[in-house]
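agent> fetching stored inputs for the beta-L-fucopyranose docking request
agent> found them:
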Amino acid sequence: MRYFLFGVIFSILSIGFNYAQTKAPEVFGPVPNENQMRWQEMEYYAFVHFSVNTYTDMAWGKGDEDPKIFNPTELDCRQWARICKDAGMKGIIITAKHHSGFCLWPSEYTDYSVKNIPWRDGKGDVVREMADACKEYGLKLGIYLSPWDRNHPDYGKPEYITYFRNQLTELLTNYGPIFEVWFDGANGGSGYYGGANETRTIDRTTYYEWSNTYSLIRKLQPNIVIWNDGGDRGDLRWVGTEAGLVGETNWSLLNAKGEVEWGMLHWGLETGDSWVPAEVNTSIRPEWFYHQNEDLKVKTLPQLMETYYHSIGRNGTLLLNFPIIPNGLIHENDEKVALELAKTVKEAFTVNLAEKAKAEASNVRGNSKEFGVEKAIDGKKDTYWATDDNVKTASLTIDFGKPTTFNRFMVQEYIRLGQRVKAFVIEAFVDGNWKELAKATTIGYKRILRFPSVQATQLRFTITDSKSSLVISNIGIYSASQILDAPFIVRNQAGEIIITPVDAESLVFYTLDGSAPTPKSKKYTSPVQTQGKVEVRAIAFDHVSGKSSPECHEKFDLPRKDWKIVGVDDEKANALFDGNISTAWHQGKDKKMPVDLVIDLGNELKICGFRYYPYQNMWEPPGVITNYQFYVSADNVEWKLLDQGEFSNIKNNPVWQIKKFSPEKARYFKLRALRNTAGNDYIGYAEVDVFTTE
Ligand code: FUL
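agent> prediction call returned; pasting tokens
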């Protein structure tokens, strides 16, 4: 009798238990709201950077530019929209006002806008044309409005906040639905400020009173998402770098209150109490604004594919920037590679080998069909495979029924129920054994893993650690073609050209006469000694597939073999002209700003510019110059100041800084550092070079 009673109680309990498991799992932790969900599903959208500094070749406008220089004679926002649409993007965010303070729309609240310039007789409105073009092409419109305004007289005072909100109100009222608003973390510094020409600092945690501004935004545009860099939690976060990548571990979580360190921007916070997903922003060229000297530096297809895997493939969205050229169009080089990227992504991810395969799981929630494995391979975003409440580790095995070749694995969690997975592994069944292909941590909205092509009959996806039971919305298995990246070209101090392919097995062909390299050009086997100025173009070539890589194209000025750093007896100092951007030399620890670098060129040259590459190692103090002066001298006694200014966005985007000026004969030059990003006296140089003329 006693056993009978136990049996009855046990059966009732297990029926109850199974009944609970046929219901959807409970939400676990923070989850996205509808706006964040819609935004996440967009995955890929564009930035366009355009302002008065497009016409001065600067990364940031200073706020004193004559607005008349803004003259996009062939402006065609429909061209921008067509390119973005064809590139598979879902929206465009326009720099309605960048740090210069110049407004691309005829704002009622300032004279510093398109309404006071000859272009279109002061009747132009770039934001309007952009909004109309987006509508025509079925794209969403986003607004970048720089909080820092180097033109406005009131910047730094409370009055400016009213001005800023008035402008936001104009932009969020007059141009239809806005999907995202972007504020930029660069705040305060030197500027024109209505003629004051001074440096103004603000406390970015209090000055803007963001919470009131956020309420205004949500009232005007209830479906919007708000960007922030972590300080004031909006709806999504910056990832702490402009290089185009988020951490491999990427939690869409942060705490609503408290400091946000760099690592939290980059990896999210596993224990975060709020849903704050990652947006990866990067430019298709080294810089955000158009600079003609970057026409040959547009990122290559393989580089952009890396960005794709390091953003969308790591639970982020990708915001890719097109700098607008002075005539008002996107450059053809940028268009070409953006379209190639779309084509390559499409080709790689069209045939999902999992769709036709048989799937089996080690656990299915309540053994119910509703949460069965098929739901993870049906390609639908609202269905998912789930496990019982107490099951946090499980495997899903895909049986192709025949040997199948693949090299990519895509997986999505059903994030409406929270981000849960902490670790997983992918294995292939090869010759009767399970072979590990890849291991990873978080999944989130989407995770893509890459591994060398493998031929196998089965794939096993095992979640080895999770915060809660599993909810997997989709998996995909693909075979993507391999693409070769361009080789690297450097010239060392002795004037030797060294070309290194990314993939050691490929061959390299090059030219030195400016002509396009082909597999019939000269084969590179060892360093090539060169004299004088030289233009080097090179490709890598895979003899198995017969395919060539994109081209690397470098122009070098005179070799630096006679250069000496005056007053420095340190072998390591040669790092700054060894051609290698990953080696650097530092000085200043024992000095006070300004810190000078004096170079003896060995003989008299006519100098018309210089370039500086900052040291970039994140884990050591890099000593990055932000403000400089450049002097020349015939005798190292009398000096003439040729140029001075700022390396505007060097902290977040530490790329080559190029400065040009009228030529001057000199035997010596002095690069004087006036300030660095850290506010101390330490200065690092990865490379310093000059431009010369006859
Ligand atoms: C940065 C700005 O300073 C750059 O100019 C650019 O707009 C980038 C998107 O954000 O912080």
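agent> quick read of the result: The pocket of beta-L-fucopyranose is lined by residues 59-60, 184-186, 281, 288, 649, 652 (CB under 6 Å).
agent> awaiting further instructions
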